[in-house]
């Protein structure tokens, strides 16, 4: 039986003009994850990656830490939903930069509300696919892994939205649970599915074993 390792990107640039850029800490998280796997002799038979810059940069860091990896298959189906488009759909007025804890909470309250409406089919943010189209794209990739990579170790680098959607597909979770899972996935966290020709099964969720040592205590981030 193989394993699919789903990795959320390292810390990006939340609150900046360009979020889609790893911070220095985000790069360190990715390199550390690759080094952790190298120390344990893990090698990947296939690599899947979203096309966003933070995905590509995270994979580059993991590959650096691993000392090499197979060429990645770039899949736009692994790209994150547009959180700003979602928020604009429920709050058309510009929001101040989330520079305080209260503004940070306001941002994510609005995002969770917009996600619930989008997933319920009552909200259609400009420039975004429907939730069913988004979910179907993730489902297709899981089916591809099941059919082509049973018995293999596969690395998948993406974002919280597609990863939580993947968990939701495997566990058949309702939308509110999928949203809750999404909000809890930490930067560079690993979620594992066992892969057989018949099905995928959840083994771990949102783990940070590579940051367990005391010297990495300050490396745990969420946004």
UniProtKB/TrEMBL annotation:
CDD domains: HP_PGM_like. It holds the Pfam family His_Phos_1. Keywords: Hydrolase. Coiled coil: none annotated. It comes from the Bacteria. InterPro entries: His_Pase_superF_clade-1, His_PPase_superfam, Mito_Ser/Thr_phosphatase. The keyword Kinase does not apply. Transmembrane segments: none annotated. GO terms for molecular function: hydrolase activity. SUPFAM superfamilies: Phosphoglycerate mutase-like (SSF53254). Gene3D superfamilies: Phosphoglycerate mutase-like (3.40.50.1240). This is Broad specificity phosphatase PhoE.
């Amino acid at each position: 039986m193989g394993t699919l390792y789903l990795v959320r990107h390292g810390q990006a640039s939340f609150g900046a003009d360009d979020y889609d850029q790893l911070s220095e800490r985000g790069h360190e998280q990715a390199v550390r994850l690759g080094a952790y796997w190298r120390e344990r002799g893990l090698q990947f038979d296939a690599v899947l990656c979203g096309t966003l810059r933070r995905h590509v940069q995270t994979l580059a860091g993991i590959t650096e830490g691993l000392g090499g990896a197979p060429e990645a298959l770039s899949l736009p189906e692994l790209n994150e939903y547009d959180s700003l488009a979602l928020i604009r759909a429920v709050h058309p007025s510009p929001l101040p930069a989330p520079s305080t804890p209260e503004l940070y909470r306001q941002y994510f309250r609005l995002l969770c509300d917009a996600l619930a409406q989008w997933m319920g089919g009552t909200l259609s943010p400009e420039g975004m696919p429907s939730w069913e189209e988004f979910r179907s794209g993730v489902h297709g990739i899981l089916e591809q892994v099941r059919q082509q990579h049973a018995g293999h170790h596969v690395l998948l680098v993406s974002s919280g939205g597609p990863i939580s959607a993947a968990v939701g597909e495997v566990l058949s979770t309702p939308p509110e649970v999928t949203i809750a899972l999404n909000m809890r996935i930490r930067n560079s966290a690993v979620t594992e599915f066992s892969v057989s020709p018949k099905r995928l099964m959840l083994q771990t969720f949102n783990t940070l074993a590579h940051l367990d040592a005391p010297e990495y205590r300050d490396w745990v981030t969420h946004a």
